[in-house]
Amino acid sequence: MGFLETIKSTLDNLPSYNEVNLVQAVQSLNLTFNEVSKYVTEPKDLEYGRNVIYRSENVEVIVIHLPSMAKTLIHDHGISIGCIFVVAGDFLNVLYKLEDKASYPIYDQVEEFTQHEILVVKEDTIHMMYNPTTSPVITFHIYTPPLKGGTTYPSP
């Protein structure tokens, strides 16, 4: 079975779409750089490459490529939850929070992630992924439900 067929089979057969099952699914895929690297895209309109490699009624799978010194926009994921598997590299996950109905999120904390670690994205996660290294970062994302209605915030 090919890589995309394995992803489809694994994700379409989850008993429920919750945080625990998403993490177990990504772990069961035994993701390797060689498999995922075929789906890496170079940046176009953003600082990073973003490639949706699978989407169903229940899930969306995305491969992100953060070149050296690149970052994502500060964003949330709407009503979606998910998990991010670090295929290659190290990055900083800069977390933000909204206080007192503020229109712009304020800095909260920074987490470091490295190869083979998993970051869980909750419904209230507001973050920016930043690659402060000279090596590229490749991440594999699974979201449920598929991303829709998330907010991006301008850089401060």
UniProtKB/TrEMBL annotation:
Family: Belongs to the cysteine dioxygenase family.
UniProt keyword terms in alphabetical order: Dioxygenase, Iron, Metal-binding, Oxidoreductase
Designated name of the protein: Cysteine dioxygenase family protein
Pfam families: CDO_I (PF05995)
InterPro entries listed in its UniProt record: CDO_1, RmlC-like_jellyroll, RmlC_Cupin_sf
Taxonomic path: Bacteria, Bacillati, Bacillota, Bacilli, Bacillales
Binding-site residues for Fe cation, renumbered to this chain: H75, H77, H127
Sample GO molecular function, one term: iron ion binding
